[in-house]
Amino acid sequence: MLENWILTILVSLGVGSVLFLVATIMLVKHNVHAKIFWNELVLEKITNFVMDQSKEQRILNSVSYNAVKGDPESVLNCIDKYCGQYEWAMNVGDEKGIILDKTVEEAEPTVALEMGTYCGYSAIRIARLLKPNAHLLTIEMNSEFIPIAKEIIEIAGLSEKVTIIEGHSQDVIPQLKEKYGVKTLDFVFLDHWKERYAPDTILLEECGLLRKGSILLADNIVYPGAPEFIKYIRSNSRYECTSYPTFLEYMKVEDAMEKAVYMG
């Protein structure tokens, strides 16, 4: 009798475990929140522990081993392939990257600002399109990402076009004129903490860093979303706004980018 009872419990636990696993797989497959949670907080942590290195270091390794040195397109393709096939990462990605490219070409910036460097992917996309006398400043608050971004940008052959500034955007923006010699910004790419999009845009205005015709491009305005930013610029007569529906990087999840032209 006891043996039957124990067997029943074990079978129930086994069936329950299988059902839980199936339910988890289905949830991860069909829910973007669950998928990102699974990738970022489960698989990534396990892989980091096993390999004793971060995902960002693995992205750098892939670039170091596979990309053609001095070839920005090769570096971008390498990162896209790795993040599309192996480990999801928060780059702007190849699909939204086309929108970024076209906006940079439209702006023809002499001085560009990026907020959120991460591994340097979008910095490379921007810098490779800059004219010889143009420069990109990119702000990153995570000190662990900065050396990786610097090395990847160097492999792409764009180190002279890019300056990475460590710090929080709200601290760096007021320093841009005096410390970094910026008069005004021709192009701004917002790809950092979404809740900072609106206050940092206002800070750019207050610091006199935007001129008539300055172009702002914001990523992830649908997922995870930047509602305060969208509300601010779309209700502000000083901006002419255009929305570009697209997909979240490396996923078929609806997202969008927002272009805002400052009219002064």
What does this 3D model show about the protein?
The chain is of the alpha/beta class. The protein has a domain at 90-262: Rossmann fold (3-Layer(aba) Sandwich), CATH 3.40.50.150. It is built from 12 helices and 7 strands. The protein has helices spanning 2-30, 32-51, 55-66, 72-85, 93-107, 121-127, 145-155, 169-172, 176-180, 197-206, 221-225, 227-234, and strands at residues 111-115, 135-140, 162-166, 185-190, 210-218, 239-247, 254-262. It has a 7-stranded mixed sheet with strand order 3-2-1-4-5-7-6, with helices on both faces. Helix 3 packs across helix 4 (72-85), helix 3 (55-66) packs parallel to helix 7 and helix 10 (197-206) packs across helix 12 (227-234). It is globular and about 50 Å long. Belongs to the class I-like SAM-binding methyltransferase superfamily. Cation-dependent O-methyltransferase family. It comes from Pseudonaja textilis (Eastern brown snake). It catalyses: a catechol + S-adenosyl-L-methionine = a guaiacol + S-adenosyl-L-homocysteine + H(+). The chain crosses the membrane at residues 6-28.
